User: Fold this.
Amino acid sequence: MAVGSVIARDSDSSPADKVRISGIPTSISSDEEMAYWIAHTDAQLTFIGDSINPLSSRSDKTTVTYCNKRIGDVCGGRCTVYTGGATCLNAPDTNCLAATKNVWFCSRSGCGGACNELSTCGVHLGNGYCYTPDTNSIAVTNA
Assistant:
């Protein structure tokens, strides 16, 4: 997709299908995009951390969904959904992820090794996901 390009979408498109910041894909999902994906995926989901409550403010919480399979442009397989504050998530075998705030994905457990920011995702997948092969942990911050 070229910078500044516009794609027409019908009104039945999911929030995740909408064009983002000036046509540039980003891997930071809105709470609504994340909720839509969770509600409509056929991935096997495990929830950890705080409950997702659509009626409460989530400004102080981050939701991260990380999965073990990338099939083409789709992230899926076995996925874990974390909602909460700052932590280091043990995430072995992670191949793709999305989050509602910027997080770091790291090559070693304990949030060690080489770590990269989600906001600088190199390979964008559908629905706001980023291809993150060899990820073994995810650093969630309060930022």
